[in-house]
Amino acid sequence: MKKELSIVFMGTPGFATEILRRIHKDGTEIKTVITAPDRKSGRGQKVNISDVKKFALEQNLNILQPTNLKDDSFINQLKELNADLFVVVAFRMLPEVVWEMPEKGTINLHASLLPKYRGAAPINWAIINGEKETGVTTFFIEKEIDTGLVIEREKLVIEENEDAGKLHDRLMFLGADLISSSIDKIANNSITPIDQSELTDGELPVAPKIFKLDCLINFQQDAQTVHNFIRGLSPYPAAWCKLYNAEKDELKTYKLFSSKISSISSIGKTAIISTKEGILFPTNDLYIYI
């Protein structure tokens, strides 16, 4: 049904854009869209705008691009909008003065089954850790990051050789459905928020931000672990290794985007082998094709 409440949407990358597209398609009143400031990059210092801003411009939506989320003028602008609900997807950490403002609260979409994989890179870490399933969660924002009351969760099976890029897209569309459902339920006062402590079952792996040095491949691990690592970082930020060319006496860095586990034992082997199917890299149990 068409939503009876008004929202402010906050987001920046493509993942957030698909969610905004769905909310707009649903007919929800969007008071304004808040996204990252434009950035200059490259030799020509070309101005780049966020994916969310591109969509908002196409739909003639009002746009705000604050550099400081605590700025008094920005806070006053938000208050004047008098929106019922704030919806946040892939955006910056909000100050309390912002997220506590709307009557219906501020909700966030997270690409994991919270409370598992709290943090900046839940899609990558779920694959790196060899998880068989993941999902998306809508929850109310509170002081501690990714700890608020859960509104809804939706599960999704991770395919055997799926990489982070493909999983990202599937979770994006699943997330759009879930946000639509959660907004509906909030509008109709038909939600029963759940404390994350009630959803805790065993260990709670986390999903910290991934830096370049974190992406260095350790081939001393078993083939499945290495394979999960490579696909969990593909296509971005990309797993990498350094290879030495004895003939040219040079050490070069290579990014690896895909791999396949072979049935060939590599126990005690250290040599890299070139084949028609690909380059075989030894791990501590089986070779993997790169």
In short:
With 290 residues, the chain is an alpha/beta fold. The chain has helices spanning 14-26, 51-58, 72-81, 96-99, 122-128, 164-187, 223-232, and strands at 6-11, 29-34, 39-41, 46-48, 63-64, 85-89, 106-110, 133-140, 150-157, 239-245, 250-256, 260-265, 273-274, 279-282, 286-289.
Write up what this structure looks like.
The protein starts with 5 loop residues before the first strand and ends with a strand. The chain has seven helices and 15 strands. It has two domains: 6-199, Formyl transferase, N-terminal domain (Rossmann fold), CATH 3.40.50; 212-289, Formyl transferase, C-terminal domain (Methionyl-tRNA Fmet Formyltransferase, Chain A, domain 2, Roll). The chain is elongated. The protein has helices at residues 14-26, 51-58, 72-81, 96-99, 122-128, 164-187, 223-232; strands at residues 6-11, 29-34, 39-41, 46-48, 63-64, 85-89, 106-110, 133-140, 150-157, 239-245, 250-256, 260-265, 273-274, 279-282, 286-289. Strand 1, helix 1 (14-26) and strand 2 (29-34) form a beta-alpha-beta unit. Helix 1 (14-26) packs parallel to helix 2 (51-58), helix 1 packs parallel to helix 6 (164-187) and helix 5 (122-128) runs antiparallel to helix 7 (223-232).
